[in-house]
Each structure stands twice: as C-alpha cells, then as structure tokens.
From TrEMBL:
Protein name per its UniProtKB record: 18S rRNA (guanine-N(7))-methyltransferase
All copies of domain Methyltransferase type, residue ranges: 30-106
Keywords: Cytoplasm, Methyltransferase, Nucleus, S-adenosyl-L-methionine, Transferase
Gene Ontology cellular component annotations, sorted alphabetically: cytoplasm; nucleolus
Domain 18S rRNA (guanine(1575)-N(7))-methyltransferase Bud23 C-terminal stretches: 176-251
Amino acid sequence: SSRVVQIQSQMSERAVELLGLPEDRPCLLLDVGCGSGLSGDYISEEGHYWIGMDISSAMLDVAVEREVEGDLLLADVGQGIPFRPGMFDGCISISAVQWLCNADKKSHSPPKRLYRFFSTLYTALARGSRAVLQLYPENSEQLELITAQAMRAGFTGGMVVDYPNSAKAKKFFLCLFVGTSGTLPKGLGTECAGGEEMHQAKFTNERTRFRNAKGKSVKKSRDWILEKKERRRRQGKEVRADTKYTGRKRRPRF
C-alpha cells in the first residue's frame, strides 16, 4: 500500500541522514534487506550509488522490474557480507536486521548469525564510516542481543530512538561507527516539555535499565537477579535459565 511505501521512504531518508555522508562527493552504500529497492530510489535521488542484498528472490525480481539503479545480490546476510574490505562508505538497513534473531533452521544460531553479519559488515565498511540499521525489536532482550553482537564485532555507537514517547511514530535506529567513535546523533522528538533532552541509549557492556542513585540495580529486583545470573554464567557456573517468572514474588501461602 502507498502508506507502507511512504513510511519506508521516510525511514530510508532518516537512515541516510544519520549516516552523515560527505556532501561533496557521491558515496557507495550497502542496503541490507533492500527488498524491492525503495530505499535505493532515495539513495539514487541523493546522487549516491548502492548495492542491495536481500534473501527474497521475489522482492529482488520486483526491484529488477522497477529498473532500480543499484546492483542487486540474492544472499542471506546471516552468512556474512561477501564484499572486499573497506568497499562501502556506509550501510543502511530498513526493517531487516531483527529477522536474524529468528532461528529458521535447526542449524541456525541467532548470536552466531548476528556476529557473522556484523563482523563481515565491519570489514566491508571504510574506516570512519557508519551503518544505520532501522529495526523493529520484539523486546528488550532482542535489542540487547543485537547490540551486544555489534559491539563484539568492533562497532561503537548506540541506539537512536526517534519519537520515544509516541506508540505509533517510535522508531529504533542502531547507529554504528567504524573505527572512530563519533557522537551519537539525537533522536527526533526527544525534547521533553521542559526543553530538556532525554538521554539517548549509549551502549556499554553492562545493563543499565533500572539503576538506583549509586548506579546499581535495585537489590532483589528482576534486573539485579538477571545481572547476578549473567555474572555467574560468565564465570562458567551452572545457572538456571531466565524465564518470565525470574524475580517474581511468590504469593503468600495461607
């Protein structure tokens, strides 16, 4: 529908804007999960060149019919980005990366596939460039899994959240830097009523969701328990799996 096309092009424009490309020369961009090439149309309009990768041959057929200007590659990014080092001046991806969190085959391990994607993407990007990946995470665990693998692969950066207070317009952009840590761009609509800015999520290697004044999670809270279990796992100890019941209070027995 035209509404979907409109949202898609808005997100492509925003992703390209977050790349912070030089204005004086055309760049070569990678579009991960390019689909029928809607983001590519915007990249071409802006005077840049692009190569699109997608796992769906049907979508790529549509892109070919639409005579998009980019080159197209049928591939599963979970198996890696097959381009030579430093080839791209930037990478965008609209609504695609969260699919790597699904294990479609028995042999698929989401953390491994994410790491393979991010580490080969890191290599294929020129030093000082960025990757901006718009995604629809199912939950905070998914976001954490994705960001952790990006950091393991060498990226710095964090999550830019546009319109965080709106259920409809809220958008997540994972903004990653290669080889330089730039300043994380500000999310749209993050000015609070008092004109103060909401803090963007910078990522560090530790969980920072519920912290009390000393910067520690509230003792015995779910987060505190999860952090403790995570530390034990890192020490190689046997730890029970996390479930939705972790950290829940039991009802008093009569």
